[in-house]
Amino acid sequence: MAADTQVIVVGAGPVGLMLAGELRLGGAQVVVLERRSTPTTESRASTLHARTMEIFDSRGLLLGLGEPPNEPRGHFGGIPMDLTLPSTRPGQWKVPQFRTEQLLQEWAVALGADVRRSWEVLELTDHGDSVEVTAAHPGGTSRVRGAYLVACDGEDSTVRALTGAEFPGQPTGRELLRADVVGIDIPGRRFERLEHGLAVAARNPEGVTRVMVHEFGGTAQPRTTEPEFGEVVDVWKRVVGEDLSSGKPIWVNSFGDANHQLSAYRTGRVLFAGDAAHQQMPIGGQALNLGLQDAVNLGWKLAIQVRHGSADDLLDSYHDERHAVGERVLANIRAQALLLLGGPEVEPLRTLMAELMTAEPTRATLAGMISGLDVRYPVGEGAHPLLGARLPDLAVTTPEGSASSSTALLRTGRGLLLDFTGDWTASLRLIAEPWADRVSVLSAEWGSGTPPEGTGAVLVRPDGHTAWAESAQAVPLTSALRRWFGPPRHRPEQRHRPEQPSEG
Length: 504
Fold this sequence. Notes:
Residues 4-331 form the FAD-binding domain. This protein is of the alpha+beta class. The protein has helices at 14-25, 50-58, 97-110, 158-163, 229-239, 286-308, 312-341, 347-356, 360-371, 406-409, 425-432, 477-485, and strands spanning 5-10, 30-34, 47-49, 70-71, 73-76, 79-82, 92-94, 114-117, 120-126, 131-137, 140-151, 169-170, 175-182, 189-193, 197-203, 209-215, 248-256, 259-261, 266-267, 270-272, 278-279, 395-397, 403-405, 415-419, 439-445, 457-460, 466-469. It is globular.
C-alpha cells in the first residue's frame, strides 16, 4: 500500500517534536498530528538534565535556549544532593517547557517536518506493510498513511488506547497539587516537610511563584479535570498556615505517583515514546528528559529503516535499550515518591539515605541515574569501556584539515568513525566506504587525559553512543556498520584488507 509519508508522529509536545527533527535530520519524511490548536504556554516540566543538554548541543540547539539558569544542586526524594558529574553541561538547567517546545518546533519545521495542529486521531489500522490513521480536523476528516507510526501523545495516549497496548503498573495513590501564581509574596521552601505535609515554593525572575503541596495521609481521587485553585489554597493553608487566596493562578494541575510502563515499545509498525510509553511522577524533571532521550534513540534508527531497509533488529534495539532505561528510572522514581510523600513513618529511611548520600560512590550513582549520564546500552560483544556509553566531547580534524569536535560533527545526524592513531583514517575510510552516505570517517584527538587502553578507533552512533571500539574482542567493523547503519549502499568490492585496523 502506498504511503502519504514515511513516518506519522502523533503528538507535538517536546518528545514528538524532538522525534520529528531527528527523523528529518536522518532524511525521513514525517507528518506530525497534534490535537491542540496551539503550542502550550504553560511552564510545566522546567528541568533539563546534563545528558539532555549534551544532546541539544549535539543538534546545535543550545544557542536557541539563551543562557538558562544552571543549578548544580538537585535532590533525591527531596533530600538535597549535588548532581555534578563530568560533562560539558553538568547539573540541571531551568527552561520552561513552552520554550523547549517552541525551540524544537522551530527546529523540526526548519528541517522540513510537516506539523499539523487541530488534527485529532480517531482510528488506527496497522496493515502490516503500512499504518493508516483517520483524523478529525477543522476541514473534516482525513486519512493519513505512513510506513510507521510513533505515539508521542502523552500519558493518556489515544494511540495506546486504540491499539490496546499492555500498560501494567500501579495506579495513583498519592498526589501533589501544583500551581504557578502571581501576586503573592511567601518564603521560598525547598521540599519542606512540615507536621501535616510537604510544601515547595520557588519564585522565578518574572515574579511567578510555583507552589506544590501534599497533605500527609491524603488519598488521591480520580480526576477528570484539573483541580481548582481554591483546592490548592485550602491544602496549602492546612499544611503551611499561609493564605494564597490573594494570588492569581496562571496554571493549576496535579500529578500523582502512578507508575506504568508499556510491555513493548514496539508492536508491528506502531512504536511509543515519552509518556505514551511510560507514566511516572515527574520528580526532579526526569520524565521530560527520559522522553526526549527516547526520541533521540529512536529517530535515527527509524530514519535508517525507512530509507535503507535495515533488518528489524535495528528497530527492535529501540525497545531493548529504552525499555531497560525506563524501567530503571521508574524504579528510582517510585523510591523517591515514597521518600517525598510518605509521612512520619519514612523519616528513619530519609535519615539513612541522607547519610548514605554523603558517600561519593552513592552520590555519583544517584547523580548518574538522575542526569542520564550513566546510560550505557548493550551494543554487542566486546569489553571495551566505551562500548554502549556516550562518547565524551573530543577534538576532531575534518578531512579538510579544520578543527572541530565530535559533538559539533554529530549535528549532521550521521555516524562517526573516529581514528585516534592518526594512521588508520585511510584504511577506515576504505572499509566504511559503502556506508559513506551515513557515516563520516575522521581523525580525532582524545584531548585532556588519556583514552581507555585499546582505543585505536571507535564507531559512534548518531545519538552519541559508542557502537564499536577497535580491540581484540571487537566484532568486525563491517558487521557493526551493517547492524547500526543498515545495508551498504552498494555491494562492497573485494579489496585488499589493510593490516590495521583489525576487523576481527
